Amino acid sequence: MKASQGVEWGLHLCMLLAFAEPHQTVDATSLAEYHELPLPYLRKILQALTRAGVLESVAGPTGGYRLARSADQITFLDIFSAVEGDQNAFRCTEIRQKGPTGLDQKCYPAACAIAATVWAAEQAWRDHLAGVSLFDITDGLTALAPPGQHELAITWLTKHTRA
Amino acid sequence: MKASQGVEWGLHLCMLLAFAEPHQTVDATSLAEYHELPLPYLRKILQALTRAGVLESVAGPTGGYRLARSADQITFLDIFSAVEGDQNAFRCTEIRQKGPTGLDQKCYPAACAIAATVWAAEQAWRDHLAGVSLFDITDGLTALAPPGQHELAITWLTKHTRA
DNA sequence: GGTAATGTGGATATGATATATCCACATTAT
DNA sequence: ATAATGTGGATATATCATATCCACATTACC
User: Fold this and answer.
1) pLDDT of A54-82, one tens digit each?
2) Quick one: pLDDT at residue A144?
3) SS3 assignment, position B39
4) Is A65 in contact with A56 (CB distance < 8 Å)?
5) CB of residue A1 closer than 7 A to nucleic acid strand C?
6) What angle do CA A91, B8, B5 make, to 5 degrees?
7) Is the N-terminal amide bond of B147 cis, ω within 30° of 0?
8) Which pick of A16, A53, A98, A119 has the fewest CB atoms within 10 Å?
9) What range defines the domain where residue B135 resides?
């Protein structure tokens, strides 16, 4: 089981944008350079985050991306779901209904107990991700002893943000 | 993010074997027929479960597979890890160290806060899976109103188990 | 000891999906 | 009008899950 690279990119880039001033945007090219990511594919990730309502996009010469709401209102689950989709990782194909002991479909009113158990575990995972916001991390980072990377990030942002 | 089919197969087949008498084995061909699974690939899954110590294999004409220990000592996590491996789904590639604000590697004594957060969520998921054993499910199934599928399974087992 | 039935491990083929790229178009500041 | 930007579709490539086969080791039975 493997999460896509885009999740890591999305989390780090949203974290970066959380340090920017509200309403200011950063263009995709700058974002790609910041973490040395392939620009064409990164655009897909940014579009997914925009469609999901995590980011806002602004077209035009001074356009770019910014958080769609305040950092404390964006959770890790929001970003994860935006990139990966919200399908369960475990897919029940109802193999219990197959084979020599399989019964007619109407004999299975309740969900497969095995699938239900695994899905409950996935819910625990989602609950944890939903409990952490971008602000929770930025807040923790600024509490670390300088010179921290977040200060470099803020300096970098002053050169790459547009009104 | 997607879990492999083998996990579903492993869970259902271990559940089936939990209904068998201790020391009795079921051969791979019968197991494949029970859920209409492709035999050659199923063998790989059974081998993985055996390597991980979830199942025991017996070679020879009356050979086959059986649980390596009692059903209450085998958790969903045991089976999941046996098939999927124990790597984290989220892979941190340390993109924080790359780009214009990247620092020398020795400047990063602590783990990436983003990766740590996601991995903590994965741990919550594992904790949940580790808290459910095969016995927990079989015990719940036999409490359901008959005629239940587990009774058909037990009948089927009497014709496909070997001493 | 021979034979047949089983599991094991390696090699390989196939298919699905993530990753990556490109292009025509819409939007907007200057 | 021009240039810089984001959008969406189409497509190529790479990676991994899925699936299959084969030579071999093990063991019950004759």
Assistant:
1) 999 999 999 999 999 999 999 999 999 99
2) 56
3) helix
4) yes
5) no
6) 65
7) yes
8) A53
9) 5-162
